[in-house]
User: Fold this.
Amino acid sequence: MARITIDDQSYEVEDGRTILQALDDLGLLMNGVDVPHYCWHPKLSIDGSCRLCQVEIEGFPKLQIACNTPVKDGMVIRTQTDRVQTAREGVMELLLVNHPLDCPICDQAGECKLQDYAYDYGVAHARTREPRRPAKKRVDLGPTIVFDQERCILCRRCVRFCREVPGTGELMVQGRGDRSVIETAPGQPLDNDYSMNVADICPVGALTTKDFRFKIRVWFLDDVPGVCTGCANGCNVHLGVASNRVYRYVPRRNDAVNETWMCDEGRLSYKTIGAADRLLEPQVRGADGRLVAAAFDAALEEAAARIRRAVEASGPGVVVALASPHATNEDLFTLRRLLEALGTSSAAGVAVRTGRADDLLIKPEKAANATGARALGFGDPGPVLDRIRGGGARVLIALGHDVLDPAFGATEELFRSLDTLILLDTHHSALERVAHVVLPARVAAEKVGTLTNHAGRVQRVEPAVEPAHLAYAEGETLLRLARALGLSLFDGRASEARSEPRASGGVGWDARTVSRAMGAAVPAFAGIDVDSVGDQGLPLRSPGA
Amino acid sequence: MGLEAPYVTGYLSEHFADAAFGTLDGYAAKGGYEAAKKALREMSPTQVVEEVKASGLQGRGGAGFPTGQKWSFMPAGTDKPKYLVCNADESEPGSFKDRILMERGPHQLLEGILIGAWATGAEKTFVYVRGEYAEPAREVQRAIDEAYAKGFLGEKVMGTKFRHDIVLMRGAGAYICGEETGLLESLEGKKGQPRKKPPFPAQYGAFGMPTTVNNVETFCHVPHILRRGAGWFKGIGTDKSPGNTIFGVSGHVVRPGLYELPLGTRLDALVFEHAGGVPGGRKVKGVIPGGMSMPILPAGMLDVPMANEFLRERKTMLGTGGVMVMDETTCMVRVGCVISYFFRDESCGQCTQCREGTGWMNRVLNRVERGAGNAGDLELLLDVAGKMEGATICAFSDAAAWPIQGLIRHFREDFEAHVRLGRCPFPESFAL
Assistant:
């Protein structure tokens, strides 16, 4: 460890770190200690070229760049002196010499480091008289990214990202001096699974995503912390929300999960939230065999009646369940409790669809909470399907439709053999065709709860938007179903609190309270609840720990 | 065809008029390779380093760093291969000394490299030759082939256990590849862009291995130091800047060419006595003493010994010893346009100040030359130059700023006349 002094404050920092890295480790960079920087990025190699992060160090006659100067015990650093200020102003003026200053029509405006630092360190008027360097606009770099050469400040973060993170290296700097431009090789577009991250790390408006550009001004967006639900990695994101609509995901830093990155597929999965195939209405299968829209309570009553009839006729063993790997831990714990209250606790499983994976972020399980489901006792779906096949199961409570997949040997035909299929789901699927009661559910972006990623990290989601239709979190729907069946799931406590916002007519299933009940009941979740996981998550307790 | 042999010769160039000196046998006939044999057979690497340190030899590539000290930075007891690099990318406008050293004395260079390799424990030397230098590259490669055939390179150098290989590589024409870490990048097959420091080449050099980079001329002095002793070397030149150097004189002089003279030779003696002064009876206006990146001196300041300790007092430096003479017809604003265009063109473009500052200075100088400048442009130029100085990865940005500062320092009236008249007042000056 090295003891260093920054602006008269003493800090203990790790040896071998550079000044910017040490500030980042301390959580102080641009968060207490302002050392503006462009080319440096915590997760990329050091470039040392933008020269904006110059600081004064005792014993050095010249200013030094903080990004590449290793800390030494006893080092005395000043970041806010007149000399430093002058140097920053100098760099900012030179960066703007060839910049088009087109903020009014630039999509980055509002979240642009050039704009921010120009306000902090810029000069009020330009001293240039000649025309600015002409450069290409709207360069199509690949399927996801558009490039504006004029705005580029050549920090080369994007170049290093492609070389160092996906390892695809599509981008390079072509030419030299003030004719330098970011380029792809002919016939080799910027096209990799992580390409859109270059727009996040581009400090200016040079790289923008085709998906988001010109959709909305960023100052209209609220950033709601959440988790990407595209796969089991659970990349931390900010959901950009305006007018109850999610406009984008951008990665939120979590060094234990996704560092500062996310994959393109996950990034675009925000579109599923407001998708046209959302399940909007409760439905009940009528006497004519057709599904018809129903009031929520009527549909719930129908579900309860069907369960009651089956249990009365053949005992609780005829009721089985399939959990959704997309639902929260709290939803699934509620399902667990419902099954226990019915007396059929072993008859439950979870089906998880799998797909392509890599060794970076993309995980094979294409659901956000498969690990959580397993930790809550939902195992292989095979035994449940076998019981349906053998005729021992007459009622299925299905959360989600992932099970309807040849990979599980589960077909529409199989489910058609049931007396009752109660489906709680977020999106339309073929499973509806064989369901008797269909109840709309909320996606992760619409509710409070926790999700457990592939590595057992429990992470919080918060409501970013409110569904336009009437839908409850699966947990609440299940609690209502229990109530309709005359069952009590949470000793009265969890059902008393009511904090789910605008869940009109809710009986008061509260994810926070449920998560604490889960922590008390399930050793893997001991001490882990919606609040204690914080914004960076907590690992599941290991067995025996 | 190659360059004329120097008009004034010394220990480096005395045999350069003799074509046989370029061959291994011809070189050996003049005592060549004796110093290398002595070093490899009789001296320890430390003794060689100490001898070179004692000689006070300073690098001849422009920065003037003490060579022996540089060699001592190479880590001892590492299991990594160590490399030597001979910087033969001579690209400084006004400098053409390394070219003659390679064309006429390639074995002198190879002997210096061998001694340096022994001193630093390097197993391989990369000779990085400027792309435009076809003939020097051919001569050095021919000499390398001869040395291998003779057993002076390869498995057992001169019958000792020392192994050394020399690989010649040609650049592709970028000035910045003469900067030692830009050279290393280019050598590795990457775009020529200087590396940030730390790490320094002695820790992380060519292909990530400990590396020392020395200029062609620097190596060429080493055999002479070992043959005749550090004391002899120190007796030449000034106290602080020992030895000869080969000055390249160009521009408005009667005898442009190469002159091997002791460091400390006066600039006016070089220009007027050796190079014959300005032709046509015209007067000198200014002289760039050390290649284009060094600040100019006006006619009244030429009474200066050509050594850094004296040139620094006049806010300039020896650089590569490329002396460029300009007569009284010369428009110093046009000189500024040429210099700033060069640096704008050659900036690698990494660092903000250099990438944007070189272009900006060039644009301002162009408009002053056109007569479109205004009274504030001089201060603007000095301000931009000030922002470019001392704040970047390599010294290129300084090298781009200093000459413009020098021009304004000594020829302010030229600039002011352009602004006042709204045109260039030097109709006879060279055309842009």
Notes: The domain at 283-539 of chain A is CATH 3.40.50.740 (Rossmann fold). Chain A touches chain B through 36 residues (CB under 8 Å). Residues 494-506 of chain A have pLDDT under 50 and may be disordered.
